[in-house]
Amino acid sequence: MLSQKAIDIVKSTAPILADRGVDITTVFYKNLFIAHPELLNFFNHANQKQGRQQTALANTVYAAALHIDNLGVLIPAVKQIAQKHRSLGIKAEHYPIVGKYLLLAIKEVLGDAATEEIIQAWADAYGIIADVFIQMEIEMYKEAAEQENGFSEFKNFKIVDKVIESDIITSFYLQPEDKSAVPTFIPGQYITVRLTIPGETYLLNRQYSLSQAPNQETYRISVKKETEMSPNGRASVYLHQDGQIGDIIEVSSPAGDFYIDLESTRPVALISGGVGITPMMSMLDTIAKTSPTRPVTFLHGSRNKALHPFDNDVRDLMSTMEDLTYLTLYSDENQMLTKEILADKVLSNSDIYVCGPVPFMKAIIQSLYDLGFEEGHVHYEFFGPAVALELVHA
Asked: Under CATH, which architecture does the 154-252 domain have?
């Protein structure tokens, strides 16, 4: 139980964290990896170099400071992060290490302003927050292991097929090396792929959405070859260029809290941009197989046809469904997914799922709120560390 004095101190430091949070988390990661380089086996190195992980952690610490007296409001965010931790194999023994270097970073960045009283209050708060994560993740590991065909961490899978879907997206079909059945998942969830790449000192972990309906034999991931950012996507480039049928890679049990409500009978709107189409394909494929009469609107934005995956697949599924509205817009042809199109195509009582690049998601979700769609019916997922959407509700 956190004392009222500690609560007051932590809350009073929130403005400082808002101002210096990224400075603190940048120092934290630098010092952490110097002292414990083995932890680089758990992190996405590209996100580190681009500063995305530092910003995401700063946002999380700031939110914890604001709500330290009512952590219940953070449970949805905690669940999302805990799902990622479980899929990466992060365990209880890692939390004291993180806590130590986070407190040292606060002291290093804030200097004399970080009094012993402030550091102790944050140490107490971190212990409580860490325990929330630890207990939640213990349950997640247990659930993953105890489900049918389950396993708690990583298992060897074989690439049994490799299919080019567009100029930049290739699908990989993965089957357990021991030829056992795979655990099921809820459409929208992801797996972590852990790669040992020649020339790389550390393991590379990447999380990819499952892009087909659940079945007992294989998982399918559809990977965008990331060459437009710096650094290039080391894992995606390796899979595209070097990943071959017969190769063995490590795969986690499915994870994630972005998934379709299969119990709902409401209409569904799937709205995606770019590679954000991958979880939508799993959702659409499942609806087609289990609820073909359920009304679905599928809106997808891509730069052009050459970069657009699964167009033929969606049209094939359309022939098996009673009420599928499908629209693709290409930005190279000055076609944009506008508020007017959303108002025209998305039924007012829909369950809405959105995935894509951050600017795309900001525009779509803000438009949906402006049109009066309720927050509880609009679901979305970021690829990589979550960032603040900064949306204004109508």
From this structure: Beta Barrel (2.40)
